[in-house]
Request: fold
Amino acid sequence: MRWRPLAALALLAGASALAPDPAAAQILDRSMTAPRPFGVILGDVFTLKTRVDVAPPFRLDASALPKPGPVTYWLDLRSIEIREESGPNGATRYEIAAEYQTFYAALEAIEQTVPPVKLVVTAEDGRRAEADGASWSFITSPLRPIVATAGGGSSAYSIRPDAVPARPSLRRSEIAAAAAGAAALLALGLLAWSRAWPPFHKRPARPFAVAARAVARQARNGEAGWRGAALSLHRAFDAAAGRRLLGEDLAAFLAARPSFARLEPTIRDFFEASRQAFFGAGSTPMPADDLLSLSKSLASAERAS
Reply:
């Protein structure tokens, strides 16, 4: 009746095959992100990232992870980092970044496998489950060229000097840069001359430009401000004429200054408004905006002349 022990063993084997894996119940998901699996040579450094989702109340046991140091005779674990965050369905997600360096001196292209990381999860009541992370294989290549045959190998396999880099001509770029610099200097000089910056600040004064700034400050400050702005503009007319300029002298002034001729109607309106403000009923018939516009136009005509 030897079949009975054999049947018992078969029943035990079947029961163990149907029993659920405790790690599968607690470690919900395992995945790995790896670099390209080819072209790896002696001394290369690469990082394998393993993502693990752990069901509560279990947590990843960080002390069970490998410590930095030699893994095999040809592979070192340089560092290992763990990042924890919330995962789907209430799970805890762990991202394990393991940085390796290979020291395998290959004589020909060969496949190597990085051993999987052992994952251990524990609960506060002492329960424990283990599982292996994914392994990763890569093709490592030799550093040295193909050995020449006994009859003398091809020169294609010998070490050749570095290619001499091309030296493109920069002549056109230099000319363009010089032209741009000259244009910038010319524009800066014209702007300095227009704005009376040094060394052009000692040129003849521009009384209407000075008056325009004064009018902009005073014209809108009520009747007193309007009077101050009007006086500033009168002083500019006096400076431009070289003497006190009255309304009766406008014809001669404009004849001597043709650049102001197009503004003659507005200038006469200003002199009439000024006469009424200072010697009449005391009103300011010319609006402040019109006075400001006249001062700017006079300054522009002065600059153009």
